[in-house]
């Protein structure tokens, strides 16, 4: 797929539908006898009411902070757009986001981000794992870490779901040593996973007999050769059965027509509405992507189009979670691998810029209606409240009620959830 406005990095030689890759669907854990206990209505209601959730909005490619959260109108770097007031006096955003501006009283803008990495792959690794990439380690992304920390044991459905154009139900490779159980399952187009209906040639009774035979053989195998891989095999089958029984949870067409129109009939609108639906059904971690913001060419025209979709879908999503009383238990994160250069290039584009950009959070322990940190009048450097990828990763976890200084026990080895040399942004945690 050719992306004429993007850089020529290997990441952007991929089609939109495949930018995070896929793996064969599998899982981890010792659940070979079924997950039916968590299908009881009372249990599901309790999980939905008390469970913390995380939803990540991934602006893939590098969204421009100057055309969104930190505009600099009237300067040589500001571009053609104005800033507009928001629902919080004194805080302004770009005029391309008028609906989101009215939800500012729910949001916390982090305007002093400096991750010091302008390469797509390396920058994405920093922002999503909270660590610098090295040849010695492969670290799990924030969605997988949150899923491991927040998903109830033996949760019936996938605890980590990625909604992306073309997602067909396969597993991503974003969980690293946490194992495939916590890797994201890819969904797309607002529809249930593919192949989640029995073929006409197989009756329910026939399938039940097949599954029982599989369980017996699996237990027989495990009694002699129990490994993490073999346990994952059984778990994935049981989880797939539960997904088939509850496939309507993943079907956004079940939402009211008025909501479908309100969010927008484009991919992001459908995906945002599906994210809301999944969170309401208790899914601990949801990630959705909007691509491709790598605007080396025609930055301003592109953001006019893309932000029309983002502004509509995101503002509806924030408003709905607030109206439903879900913000106290749901952490919203809007991130990218970096921002865009203040300098406009000869192609009316902005290039990669990781030294002064913005991330947005809302819900759970985040303060409402706050802009933390600041850049100078041209947006070229952070002048107050500088934070980096490791600070953000700690803050994501703490914001969702997870102790970021804790460790996971991985095969007898204690592994820190976040970089132990760093710390959260204490000034904004409530």
Q: Which structural class should the secondary elements be placed in?
A: alpha/beta
Question: What's the N-to-C terminus distance?
Answer: 45 Å
- Low-confidence stretches are 14-47
Multimeric status of the protein = single chain
Q: Helix amount, in percent?
A: 25-40%
Using brief descriptors, characterize the structure shown.
430 residues, Alkaline Phosphatase, subunit A, 30% helix, nine-stranded mixed beta sheet, alpha/beta, globular, 17 strands, two-stranded antiparallel sheet
Can you summarize this structure?
Mean pLDDT is 87; it is low at 14-47. The chain is α/β, with parallel strands linked by helices and 430 residues long. The longest helix has 25 residues, at 299-323.
Outline the fold blueprint.
Elements: H1 41-50, E1 53-60, E2 83-85, E3 92-94, H2 98-101, E4 107-113, H3 120-129, H4 142-150, E5 160-163, E6 168-171, E7 185-187, H5 204-225, H6 228-245, H7 257-263, H8 267-280, E8 285-291, H9 299-323, E9 330-335, E10 339-340, E11 352-353, E12 357-362, E13 370-372, E14 374-375, E15 382-384, H10 389-399, E16 407-410, E17 413-416
Parallel strand pairs: 1-8, 1-9, 4-13, 5-7, 5-8
Antiparallel strand pairs: 2-3, 4-12, 6-7, 9-12, 10-11, 14-15, 16-17
Helix pairs in contact: 3-10, 7-8, 8-9
